[in-house]
Amino acid sequence: MSYKNWTKKIDSDGICWLHLDVVDSSSNILRSDVLDELNDILNGFAQELPAGIIFVSDKDNGFIAGADINEFTEITTEEQASKILSRGHDIMNRIESLSCTTLAMINGYCLGGGMELALACTYRIMCDNKSTRVGLPEIKLGIHPGYGGTVRSIQKAGPMAAMNAMLTGRALQGRAAKRMGLVDDLVPERQLKRAARYFVINKPPQKTLGLKDRIMNHSFIRPFIAGQMRKQLAKKARKEHYPAPWKLIDLWQSHMDNPRRMLQKEIESVSSLVTDGTAKNLVRVFFLQEALKSQGNKKDFKPTHIHVIGGGVMGGDIAAWCALQGFRVTVQDQNPEALAGTMKRSMTMFKKKFKKDRRAIRDSMDRLIPDTRGIGVARADLIIEAIFEDRDVKQSVYKDIEPRMKKGAILATNTSSIPLEDLATCLEKPDRLVGIHFFNPVALMPLVEIVRGENTSDETMKQSLAFGRQIGKLPLPVKSSPGFLVNRILMPYLMEAVEMVGEGIAPEMIDRAALDFGMPMGPIELADTVGLDVCKSVAIILSDGKTLNLPKKMKAMVDNGKLGKKTGEGFYKWRKGKAIKDKKASYGNMQELQDRMILRFLNEATACKREQVVEGDDLIDAGIIFGTGFAPFRGGPLHYIQHQGVSELNSRLNQLKDRYGERFNSDEAWGSL
Ligand code: NAI
C-alpha cells in the first residue's frame, strides 16, 4: 500500500525506514492526514513486524516541525480537542509499545509533536550540526505538550531539565539535548544512517534516571520543587494571563507517580488550555509574526557591505548587530572615542551571543571595521545613518556622501522623528532614501520599522524589507508620519502615566496597573529607562497639531536634570540598574488608572488605522505587539477592542473625556471598527 506522506523502505537487515515527506507543505508537520496514515502503517505492523523501525525525514529543512497550527485554530470545544489529542496519544502509545526497536533519526528541527513522536521511540539520535535542534515549544502557543511529551520528556531527562525545557519552550542544540538525556547520541551527518542502524541492531542499554532525578520526582519532594518553580514562574508570567505553565507544574506535581494517569490528565489539561482565550491569541501572535516575516523576501536584495554612520547608542549597536548577522560592516564616527566604545560594546554583544565559541567571536569582530574617514561609503550596498537627531547635520552628511555612493546603493536613516521628505530635499536621488528605524536596545527588540517617504521607490522599499529579514528582524512597512507607528502609540500612554504622577498618584501604582493589564514593564519605569529627555523630545514632535500635551511634571524633571536610569534618578531613584520602589504604595481605583492609560493607547491605535500608517489591522496589531510588548495574550490592540466590545470601550473613553477633557476624545475611526 502506498501513502501520500510516508514511504516504507525495508533494508537488507529487515529494518523498516519510514520516510516522511508531507505533501503540500514546506516542512514536515503532524497534520491529521499524516497521523491517519501513520495509524494505518502501525496497523500494518501488527500483521507483519519489521526487525526495527527508523523514522526519517525526506525534507531538507528538518525532521518534524510539530503539529499543524492551522488545525489548532479550528478547535472550538474541549470535547473536540480531547478527541484530537486522544488520537495522537493512541499513536504515540502504540509506537512506544511496539515489540521491535524504534528510532528517530533527527536531522534539522524536531519540535513539539515531532519531538513527542521521537520521545515515544526507543532511541533518538541527533545530527551534530547547528541547524539541528530539538524542543517542546508548545508553551509559546499557550498550551503545553499534548501528545504524551510531558510524561516522556520527564522520564528521559528528569524533572528539572525536562520541566525547564517545557516551561521555556527553548529549542536545544545537540550537546544540551544529549547532556539532558533527551537524545541518546549525537553524530556527524555522514554517519547518521550508520549510527541509526547500529542502535536498532545492537540495542545498546537505554539510559535511566540518576538518583538525584528520581528523588526530585518523588511524591514527598515534588511539592517543594513545584513550589520553587511557581515562585520563579510568578516573576515572569501571571496565572490569569498565561495559565499553561502553571497547569504544567500542577500536572507534574499531582500525577508523576502514575504515568498512565498523567497521560490522561495531560489530555484534559491541554484540552482546557487550547480553547482558552490566551492560547487562541498566542496562536494569533504566531501568525502575526509570520505575516511580518513575509513582508520581506530575503532574495530581493544581496548586500555584502553595510556602512553605518554614527557610532553612538544606536549606530554602534546597529553596526555590531549587522556584523553578528554575517555582513561586512564599516562604522564611521567623527568622534574616535565613540568608535572605541562601539568596538568594546560589540565584543560584549558577540561574547554574549557566542559564549565560548571563540572563532565565531573573532569572525564577527573581523567583520566589523572602524572607519574614521568614511572609506566604506563607496563600497557599501546600504548606508545606515544614525547620527544626531538634527535635520541640518544629517543633510550635510548626505550631501557629502551621495556623490560617493555606489550605483544602486540605499541610504537609510534611523531618525525617530524627522520627516523623510524634509531630509530628502538635499538629495539628487531621493528615491533611494528610506527609514530603517531600529529600537533600543537593538539586540533585544525584534521589530524594525521600514519607513516609506513620499519619494522612496518601490525597489528601495522592497530591498529594505528584505534587509530587515536578512538581519533576523521583523520588518514592518510604515508611512512616514510623526512617530511612525510604535512611538506614536506609546507616547499618549506614557504621557497619561506621567500626568497621573503629576496628580500625586504613586508611580508604583501606575506601573502596577499596566502590569496587571499584561504590559511587560510599567510606563513610568519605561520612561525612566528610555530617558526622560528622549521621551520629552519625541512628545514635543508628536504634540505638533495633536492632542498630546507635554505634562508639566515631565518638563520640570528634565529641567532639573533628573533624566531617569542614566542619571540615577527620574520618577524613581535607581540603584545598580534597578528602580527602588515603595512596596507600601497604594491606590483605591486601579481600574481607572488602567483605563486612562490603556484607552489612550487603544485610541491612538485606531487613529493609526484611520490614517493608514500601516496597511491593515493585522499588521498594526503585529507592529504594536512586537514593537511595544503590548500584552501578547490579548492578541493586539485592534483585536482586543473587537473582543472586549467596541461600544463598551468607547463609552468608557467618553466617560474619561467628561472627567479629564479632550485628550480622551475618541477617534472617529471607532465608528468603523
Ligand atoms: P548618539 O548621540 O548616542 O550618537 C550619535 C553619534 O553620531 C555620536 O557618536 C556622534 O559622534 C556621531 N555623529 C554626529 N554627527 C556626525 C557626523 N557628521 N559624522 C559622523 N558621526 C557623527 O545618538 P543615538 O541615540 O544613537 O541616536 C542616533 C539616531 O538614532 C538619531 O537619529 C535618533 O533619533 C535615532 N534613534 C535613537 C534611539 C534611542 O533610543 N537613542 C532609538 C531609535 C532611533
Structure notes:
With 673 residues, the chain is of the alpha/beta class. 49% of the residues lie in helices and 14% in strands. An 8-stranded mixed β-sheet has the order 15-14-13-16-17-18-19-20. Strands 1-2-4-7-9-12 form a 6-stranded mixed β-sheet, sandwiched between helices. It has a 4-stranded mixed β-sheet with strand order 5-8-10-11. Strand 16, helix 17 (391-401) and strand 17 (410-413) form a beta-alpha-beta unit. Helix 20 packs across helix 23 and helix 25 (590-610) crosses helix 28 (646-660). The chain is globular and about 80 Å long. The model has no long low-confidence stretch (mean pLDDT 95). The structure holds 1,4-dihydronicotinamide adenine dinucleotide (NAI). 1,4-dihydronicotinamide adenine dinucleotide binds at residues 309-315, 332-335, 338, 386-389, 393, 397, 414-416, 438, 440, 534. 1,4-dihydronicotinamide adenine dinucleotide (NAI) is lined by residues 309-315, 332-335, 338, 386-389, 393, 397, 414-416, 438, 440, 534.
